[in-house]
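Two quick folds needed for the group meeting slides. Do the first one here.
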Amino acid sequence: MSKFIADKDYNMIWNECSSRIRKLCKIKLGDSPEAAEDVCSDIYLAFAEAVKSGREITYPKAWLYKVANNLIIKKYEELRIQKERMVTFDENNTELMSLVIIPDMTDCIITDKDIQRFADEIMFSLSEEEEKLLRFFYDENMSLREIAGIFGKTESAVKQQHYRLCKRIKKAVNERIENF
């Protein structure tokens, strides 16, 4: 086969491989069928772009599986980062959203203003490094590895610091709610 793929060969190759690639994506990303479909679409688009740009692809089936593998790994990383994000903040980094755990308090009404005040108090109590850690992770969507590089620490140390910080914030929020 020539190194350059003609349009008709491109369609034939994709038709031969697409069902197996789709199956691979569904197996690897079984928890998220939408993610598997996204990866399949991205593989197809990458293949189409490579063919249209005249890229040399000596072994197109192998190339497709390599792209599939790389995109699956990338999707795993995206899904992992999404799972790590237990707390969401607004653009001012002050409003705690999914962190608040309210016990059965049928006789007590906590308003958004109260929650905002709690969040402000908690954010004010953080050190500059802790505030930067939260800002980098939640606002800038940086990975713990990237943050570790900025702070000059190991990824493990930053991950532990993030975990402890989230745990401390949860505890502070719950204490404020209980004492309300």
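Then this one, please, same format:
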Amino acid sequence: MNVVQFIKDNAILVTTLSIMLSFAIVMVLNPIVIPLLRRLKFGQTIREEYDIVPVLLLTLGFGLIGLIDDLIIVVKKRNEGLSEIQKFAAQIVVTAAFCVYLIKTVGTSITIPFAFGVEWHMPIWLFVIFVFIVVVGTVNGANFTDGLDGLATSVTVVIAAFFMMAARKLGYTGNGYMAFSGSVLGSLLGFLTVNCYPASIFMGDTGSLALGGFVAGMACVMRMPLIIILVAFIYLIEVISVMLQVAYFKYTKKKYGEGKRIFRMAPLHHHYQEGGQSETQVVNRFTIITFILCLVAFLSIK
């Protein structure tokens, strides 16, 4: 039997098996990988069948950037890996390659949430700028979200579930969108067993940048990047909180001679921590918010 045809005819079965298999693999590997990483001291010193391939490459591309960053930290035993300029330049290169794919294969039209079928046909120059903002913003938002035990993992579990169900609803059953989202979902569920508070292992930049690439990639190839505002709202407010904090501090320091802050601490999850909420409370509340917004987003597509 043709594999592609089998996936098309049995999309739900394939997706379910992907979730179960990914979860099982992660659970089996956890006892092996965690001791190995500890011994290495891997942590901070305080065409249709191929449609999913670009998303996979985007995910791996950003994951590779994160991996290099993490390895530099481990090898040189310092808190910083790649410089901000190096990291940003690498992100631009990966995003540019993905953008070329979108223009040539998917097109420059995007759907509008709640408009039920209405599309916005964007000129290429505007589409390129838009994609760069969406991808780089989402990836860095995911990176900032990875600041509490289980936070980025829990939030992205819900987002992966959304993309899996959205792919089914929109008819993307033969190009791997459901299966890949299900694989990410299953992997994250398995990882969450050791990443929830108190965490035994952390995803680092390798994991957080890869997850951001997955989320941005899925939204773009399904031609609904604007949905990120809802489903990845936590990513968005995390990165915006950092930008506002830095900008306001610099402005007030220049104007008054002393820098002031909008938040107790940025990213935003630390603001709530400083306000007396526990890690678990912040993680649970951010995950609930994501669940509600993903439900709203699911109702907004047709």
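Slide caption for protein two: The longest strand covers residues 109-111.
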